[in-house]
Amino acid sequence: MTISPLFRLGAALLCCILISQALGQDCSCNFHVKGDCQANGNACVCKLPIGPDLTPIDCTKPIPKCFLMKRESNPGKGGRRPKPENALVDNDGLYNPDCEGNGIFKARQCNNTETCWCVNSAGVRRTDKGDKNWKCTELVRTFWVIVQLTRNNTDSIPEADLKKAIADTITNRYKLPAKFITNIEFEGPLIYIDLKQNTTEKTPNDVDIADVGYYMEKDVKGDPIIPLDNPFQILVNGKNVPVKEPLIYYIDEKPHEISMKRLTAGVIAVIVVVVVAIVAGIVVLVLTRRKKGRYEKAEVHALVNLTVGFFKCILDLWDNCL
Ligand SMILES: *[C@@H]1O[C@H](CO)[C@@H](O)[C@H](O)[C@H]1NC(C)=O
Ligand SMILES: *[C@@H]1O[C@H](CO)[C@@H](O)[C@H](O)[C@H]1NC(C)=O
Ligand SMILES: *[C@@H]1O[C@H](CO)[C@@H](O)[C@H](O)[C@H]1NC(C)=O
After folding, report:
1. Last residue of some domain: 225, 252, 279?
2. Which residues cross the membrane (predicted)?
């Protein structure tokens, strides 16, 4: 029995097409728009331009924040829910971080300058800044990340449905095991998501909560790291619930060491004494003038304005100091 050459050629071609499709399938970077992946045998090898070099990366899970920040080499207002003492906000924004080979932040960061400081495992500054001799003895772990989001509209949605939708987005999109999402709660338009993962709970393969926070922040800001064919959505009954103004808080396993410029008790005491003296002065003045029958409304108004001004000034100061 002979097989016609045409048939052989056809079979060979079909075979070729199938193989190339199988190889081409899914060999793209699911976790970075700029990831460059090439099929190599059965493997899909991905690289990302990090700093000046093309660095091999694993594109099947979120890429460590240190690499992402290095690649990019800067949130809204807080709500009323009390923040845990020691909560850090990433006010410093972006710097050019030094990463370990596995994408973990080096404990000391200098942003390629002479000024150095210590960071936590989320890369957020947790000490004051110093010179090149600044010492950081360990990388303190951020075991708790609070993601605060604001809903863009007030459409009423059952809380349980919204909670489930948010948790699904986090577990599916960022590959974070559900056990690390410890709480989701609502306060008017604000959404608070607690992600907790301490040193003992996290296995080397688990996505870090700080990486999830970073991906999510970028997603909500409309500047996604994940390719656009997989858009960020919080789906309730097939409908996206739009959110905005992400704000992320980082709480470390050890208290941070940033010296706070707060009003000390001494300064507060002085302010209170001055305020009491001024109020007493106005009362005495009004009473004595009234007795003498020389009470002038305009004068009192001027004094009241002066006092209000003084209070405003204190309040401004207060804001700046907290
Ligand atoms: C890091 O350096 C860049 C460029 O010199 C600068 O714009 C940025 O503000 C620095 N960031 C910090 C946190 O010092
Ligand atoms: C880590 O978290 C687990 C579960 O919440 C807790 O049992 C454990 O004591 C924690 N470990 C540390 C070192 O804080
Ligand atoms: C939020 O609502 C405003 C006004 O309706 C709209 O312009 C904006 O695109 C919305 N943002 C998101 C993230 O949906």
Report:
1. 252
2. 263-287
Best residue among 149, 152, 244 to mutate for probing ligand 3, ranked by most atoms within 8 Å of CB: 152
Among candidate residues 197, 231, 252, the one where a domain is terminated:
252
This prediction has a pTM of: 0.73
243 CA: nearest ligand 3 atom: 13
Number of structural domains in the chain:
2
The answer to whether residues 100 and 226 belong to one domain is yes
- Name the residue range of residue 130's domain: 36-252
* Residue nearest ligand 1's atom 10 by CA: 95
pLDDT in tens, 218-229: 999 999 999 999
**How many alpha carbons fall within 13 Å on the CB side of residue 250?**
25
